[in-house]
Design goal:
Blueprint: H1 19-48, H2 53-85, H3 87-105, H4 111-125, H5 128-139, H6 145-169, H7 172-190, H8 197-202, H9 219-230, H10 233-243, H11 246-253, H12 261-286, H13 289-309, H14 315-328, H15 332-341, H16 348-361, H17 363-400
């Protein structure tokens, strides 16, 4: 009879408790805390800077776009740096940048300065998750990569819950100082983290490292890259539209109680914390990344249909469905692990870091599309149409991808 997965000495879970795994996890915690913090304090902070309600809406959108632009640019720059100079160079550089940008946000006196501080924060935050997942994927034994990625994502996504609770206790400027302080404290932990052995080996080779254009000069490589972004799209549809605009959907459903977007986001991320942990174990159990992601994506579609067409009548049920959607999109760690496993060591950080932020940036297309359709088909209709497109792209990307479970990563493109 075959021995249990956990009884074999070859499958010891000890590597999961090493410093790099938990440094990556806590780094993502600060990452999520900061990214969600602006969404939560956007209104109060801009009102405190003297803007009226209409200006808060307009300027809030502008500042958010500055942050997203920083994420897009940083996703490419940090990814290239991670392959050219090492995974740790990104972890150190990104934490310094977004920590100082966070602290600067607490001192801003006008919306223009606020926008540039959020751009700098986005630029710094762009390097965190991709570099962390890349490092964890390379240092862990291949049979533990799914567990390691789940730990990183689950601990990290809990930062959203902490961000929501922190805002309830402190002034918005203090919450930014807390974020910066957490980052600088984490920097001290990273001093003892060692570079990936796989990366060290390719530094002695003549192979090109961190060449972003390489994703567009080879058809097979380009499709791999696009598919990795595609499987992320449904997750950011849920976060960027259904949770962020929960107040508008609540009104369209006729719910009399006020639906708070910040609470929708909090419940969604609470579910995602559990979902990411679950999907990692599910992937190990099924011995497949594709099957695990497929089940989670199907569950996401189920909850989205309940959200849009299930006849929700109370705010409590609305938040429960947000929790369910959050659990279902808890395959964020899996799609990034799959990305890391899909590319050679010389392009792995560039791919993983840029995919992480390109996935987030799909809201730059989905949100304007949602807003443009609302006057014609209503809030629920617009959400449904955008959702159909997102899920079609997501399922296509997943079905056409190669399985990467326990793939040997010690190779170059």
């Amino acid at each position: 009879m075959q021995s249990s997965t956990f009884s074999s000495p070859q499958t010891s879970l000890r590597p999961l408790f090493t410093l790099p795994v938990w440094v990556a996890a806590l780094g993502y915690f600060v990452d999520v805390y900061d990214l969600l913090l602006f969404n939560i304090v956007r209104g109060p902070s801009l009102k405190d800077l003297g803007l009226d309600e209409r200006s808060v809406s307009l300027m809030g959108g502008t500042i958010y776009n500055y942050q997203q632009a920083g994420l897009l640019l940083g996703g490419i720059l940090w990814g290239i740096l991670g392959d050219k100079r090492g995974r740790l160079s990104v972890l150190f550089g990104s934490i310094i940048m977004y920590s100082l940008a966070n602290i600067a946000c607490g001192f801003v006196k006008n919306p223009e300065a606020y926008a540039w501080c959020r751009f700098a924060a986005g630029l710094g935050l762009a390097g965190e998750l991709g570099a962390g997942i890349t490092l964890v994927s390379e240092i862990l034994p291949k049979h533990l990569r799914g567990y390691g990625s789940s730990i990183v994502a689950s601990v990290g996504l809990f930062g959203a819950v902490v961000a929501f609770l922190t805002v309830q206790l402190f002034d918005w400027r203090i919450t930014y100082f807390i974020g910066g302080g957490l980052g600088l404290g984490l920097l001290l932990m990273r001093v003892s983290v060692l570079e990936s052995g796989m990366y060290k080996r390719i530094t002695n080779e003549t192979v090109s490292r961190g060449n972003f254009s390489a994703f567009f000069t080879n058809g097979n490589r380009f499709l791999r890259y696009i598919r990795c972004i595609g499987i992320a799209i449904p997750t950011y549809f849920v976060i960027g539209i259904l949770a962020t605009f929960g107040n508008e959907f609540g009104k369209a459903m006729g719910i009399t109680d006020e639906i708070l977007p910040g609470r929708c986001i909090m419940y969604t991320y609470m579910g995602t914390v559990v979902g990411d942990l679950f999907s990692g174990f599910l992937s190990q159990r099924l011995r497949s990344r594709k099957k695990a992601i497929g089940l989670m994506m199907g569950l996401t579609l189920f909850f989205v249909l309940i959200y849009l067409f299930g006849g929700i009548q109370t705010s409590s049920m609305f938040y429960v469905v947000c929790l369910g959607m959050g659990f279902a999109i808890g395959y964020i760690a899996m799609f990034l692990t799959m990305t890391a496993e899909s590319f050679g060591t010389n392009l792995r950080a560039t791919a993983t870091t840029s995919v992480a932020n390109n996935g987030r940036a799909t809201t730059l297309l989905s949100i304007p599309a949602f807003q443009a359709m609302k006057p014609h088909v209503g809030v629920i209709g617009a959400g449904a149409i955008v959702g159909i497109i997102c899920f079609v792209l997501g399922f296509w990307a997943l079905v056409t991808m190669d399985e990467t479970f326990e793939k040997d990563l010690d190779y170059s493109e």
